[in-house]
Amino acid sequence: MTHPCLSCGACCASFRVDFSVHESQAQGGRVPAGLAEEVTDHTCRMRGTDWARPRCAALVGKVGEKAHCGIYEWRPSPCREFAAGSDACNRVRVRHGMQALDSGLL
To answer: What Pfam families does the record tag this protein with (predicted)?
Structure first.
């Protein structure tokens, strides 16, 4: 069974993603330059996530069909900590027209 995150992308098109500047390449981290912008001296934000209808600049593909993170190995901590099948995951899946996940299957 293919992991549902490989076709979903709902989280990438639902939240503002803020993280420590120390996670950016410019500060020695792994989040690629150009995909995030510094919003304070301490905080970066993934491009595309600060809109009423967010879509992360790292999202590749169409939400709900074939979508994935283009920087999965280098994604920031909020993305690493977001759990597939969590309440937040299921809320945004439903908002984007998909079924909620049964967390027991993950």
So the answer is: CxxCxxCC
**56: burial class by Cβ within 10 Å (0-12, 13-18, 19+)?**
buried
Q: How far, in Å, are 47, 57, 94, 95, 106 from residue 50 at the CA level?
A: 7, 11, 21, 18, 29
Number of structural domains in the chain: 1
DSSP class of 23: G
pLDDT at 86 over 90: yes
pLDDT in tens, 39-79: 999 999 999 999 999 999 999 999 999 899 999 999 999 99
DSSP 43-62: EEEETT-SSSS---TTEEEE
Phi then psi dihedrals of residue 15, to 5 deg: -130, 155
